[in-house]
Amino acid sequence: MIVLVHAVVGLGMLIVVPLGLTLLPTRTTSTRWWFAFAVPGAVSLWLPRGVVSIILASVYFAGTVVLIALAARHFLHHRALQVRHIALYIALYTALVTPSIAALALVAERSSYELFGFNLTVLSLTVAHFHFAGFAAALMAYLSADGLAAVSVPVGTLLVLIGFFLGDPVELAGAVVLTAGMWLVGWNLWRRSRRTDRSTAILLVVSGSVLVVTMLLAVSWALGHVVDTPYLPLEWMVATHGVANAVGFALCGVLAMRREGAG
Question: What pLDDT does residue 77 have?
């Protein structure tokens, strides 16, 4: 399972995030600088825990701090916001901040340190979660230009994070809110597919369609930890919910948006 998690995280670091950065209004159309941080982070995933992997993971964390600086600079240049832009910028800043949460969890996991009491498996899953349910989900909510989705996706992500500390009922609430937001994103992707070329439309439909199943799996997982209902084992959640969201939703989604931008 951990091998699959690391492969998914590597996809996020080396493909989804840099492609996504070129779609954001934060002067990141060239992402060569990102790879100077992301490649060491990706390498750290495959090395034994210890000094070398900690250093490489820390380099990646430094790169994610640059994203926070980009968010801060954008905010300072756009403080006089129109009301209709506020929701979209919440999603934008969420996309730029959440990789740092993933990177912090990576440094802790590579250090064999149970950050906030979470075991190393949970920390590994947190690294994956905040690249996709964090960065990719907020990115697509921002690009969909849907105010409700742009708010509900970050709020749901935040509630899931808080649920790690306050308990399963809060995490369930976060999963429900996040699912609602992601389904709105999916609906907007489907609508977008009707007015573009065939190849881009296929990518948009795949990206939006997989969310129907993957987010139901997320809700069933969270619900099963609150009441006695069935849910998939962790290994199967990684292989289904995790892989489908990473490849089907995130990768296809950013590729589609890139094609639209180039068209």
Answer: 80
How far, in Å, CA of 95 to CA of 138, rounded? 5
Distance CA 197, CA 91 (A): 27
Q: Which residue has the tokens 């779609």?
A: 23
Between CA 261 and CA 263 the distance in angstroms is 5
At 86, the pLDDT band (50, 70, 90 cuts) reads: confident
What pLDDT sits at residue 81? 61
> Looking at residue 158, what is its pLDDT?
94
Q: Helix (H, G, I), strand (E, B), or coil: what is residue 37? A: helix
- Residue 46 and residue 64 in contact, taking contact as beta carbons nearer than 8 Å: no
Residue 13's pLDDT band, with cuts at 50, 70 and 90, is: very high
What span, in angstroms and rounded, lies between the C-alpha atoms of 149 and 140?
Answer: 9
Q: Which long-range contacts (CB under 8 A, 24 or more apart) does 85-90 make?
A: 87/147, 87/148, 87/150, 87/151, 88/142, 88/145, 88/147, 88/150, 90/150, 90/151, 90/154
